[in-house]
Amino acid sequence: MSWWGTLLGGTLGYMFGGPLGALLGVALGRNFDQGLKVSGRAGGYGTGQQERVQAAFFTATFSVMGHVAKADGEVTPDEISAAQSIMARMQLDARQRKAAIELFNAGKREDFQLHAVIDQFRQECHRRRNLVQMFLEIQIATAMADGHVHASERRILLTIGEQLGFDHAAIEHLFSFVGSGTAMDSGKASLSDAYEILGVSRNASDAEVKKAYRRLMNQHHPDKLAAKGLPEEMMKLATEKTQEIKSAYEQIKKSRA
Questions:
Q1: C-alpha dihedral over 114, 125, 95, 106, to 10 degrees?
Q2: Is the pLDDT of residue 24 over 60?
Q3: In 3D, which of 149, 133, 129 has the Cα closest to residue 68?
Q4: Which one of 7, 20, 36, 45 has the largest count of C-beta atoms within 10 Å of its C-beta?
Q5: CA–centroid distance for 163 within its chain
Q6: Phi, psi (rounded to 5 degrees) for 78
């Protein structure tokens, strides 16, 4: 059974508390705070277990997305369109889409507890760094939806990234990685974009380029991310990212032939 089926069946609600549980409960019109009282019961879904991680990823993704979009004081049509595009690519059913929209709106509220949400999300992911990086990439892509990243959005994204355990240089690289990936996806990528995606310089040897390509493919492989807790609904996003990486590698190889 998927995390969504487990959630609707009531089992997940018995253990999923904290700020993420409260957000998801509000999105579904249910109270999950009571789950804290029985979270240690035998057979329950503990921290790091698959369906719990999937629920945490879904909840954090859309609520933080709303918060980042509101960071510059307003949510632009492009940012709303980006959120809707992600929902469409995930092929959410009507109830999932409604929950995602409710979470996005919750993230825009003044009382949204960003640091508490990120802290619980990191704990729930239980050292799954590639999964956490995918989450951060989605947030950066949403911020870039209107063609630029506002200073306030960048500050929040840097704060989020650092709280998730990434250093400043790694986060800045993700901005380049996501931006160049978007260009690659649109078919307008330059050779420089291809090198940015792989994170290597034009002077890198063929062996170094291939090593970077394999590392990125391993980090973003849909099946491996799914095994770490990426919700099934987000598999298409991971697949699209691997296609961007593969296209960048092929463009570089062609330029060196």
A1: 0
A2: yes
A3: 149
A4: 20
A5: 15
A6: -65, -40
